Amino acid sequence: VAAAIANIRYLKKNERTLMAHANAMGEYFEQRLLHIPFQYPVEIRRRGMAIKVRFQQKGYGIKVATQAAKNGVIVSHWSSDGFNLFPSLTITKKVAAEGLRRIAASV
Fold first, then answer.
1. What is the pLDDT of residue 79?
2. SS3 for 26-82, per residue?
3. What is residue 1's predicted lDDT score, i.e. its pLDDT?
4. With CB atoms counted within 10 Å of each terminal CB, which end of the chain scores lower, N or C?
5. How far apart are CA 29 and CA 44, in angstroms?
6. What is the per-residue pLDDT for 100?
7. What is the four-CA torsion angle of 89, 95, 100, 101, rounded to 10 degrees?
8. Burial (0-12, 13-18, 19+ Cβ within 10 Å), 36
9. pTM score of the predicted model
10. H-helix or E-strand spanning residue 11
11. How far lies 26's CA from each of 75, 87, 90, in Å?
12. Residue ranges of the chain with pLDDT lower than 50?
């Protein structure tokens, strides 16, 4: 319980900083994902750092997500047309760049 209370206090105290960082990093993810040379057209939907990567080609989403997972990237809700990413709100640009490099290596 003490840890949960400490987390809530931290979130309240740093809300603006965390939100600004989340928006900036979400934009960074979106732009980098749009420049990955996927084999099929991609649509990126994003709210903050909740990111949906969706492909027009059915089956390609599972292929990329499976390989990304093998490359060490945690992806969520795989489907035939895409996958979701939920990076940590405190992710650094260096760690984000490495994860995106691994996704690019998965295509």
1. 84
2. HHHHHHHHHCCCCCCCEEEEEECCEEEEEECCCCHHHHHHHHHHHCCCCCEEEECCE
3. 87
4. N
5. 10
6. 98
7. 180
8. middle
9. 0.86
10. helix 2-13
11. 15, 9, 11
12. none
